[in-house]
Design brief:
mainly alpha, 2 helices, 0% strand
């Protein structure tokens, strides 16, 4: 819903909550081995890069819309 409605703050808040929840559940439920740490790190980095890309794209889109209406 937030992505379609272009509510970037709601998307960021939801992703932050999801990341904290996933991190907590990961360490509560799964084994704590070096391979698990590696997998968790890779998943976190991919998640972070996806959110960073979304925010950069949304910022550029907002700037382009302002330039067109000005």
């Amino acid at each position: 819903w937030a992505y379609v409605a272009d509510k970037r703050s709601v998307v960021n808040l939801s992703c932050t909550f999801l990341a904290i929840n996933l991190y907590t559940q990961w360490w509560e439920r799964l084994a704590k081995s070096p391979s698990e740490l590696l997998v968790a790190s890779v998943v976190g980095i991919v998640f972070l890069l996806g959110l960073w890309h979304y925010n950069n794209h949304a910022t550029r889109t907002e700037e382009a819309q302002k330039a067109v209406t000005a």
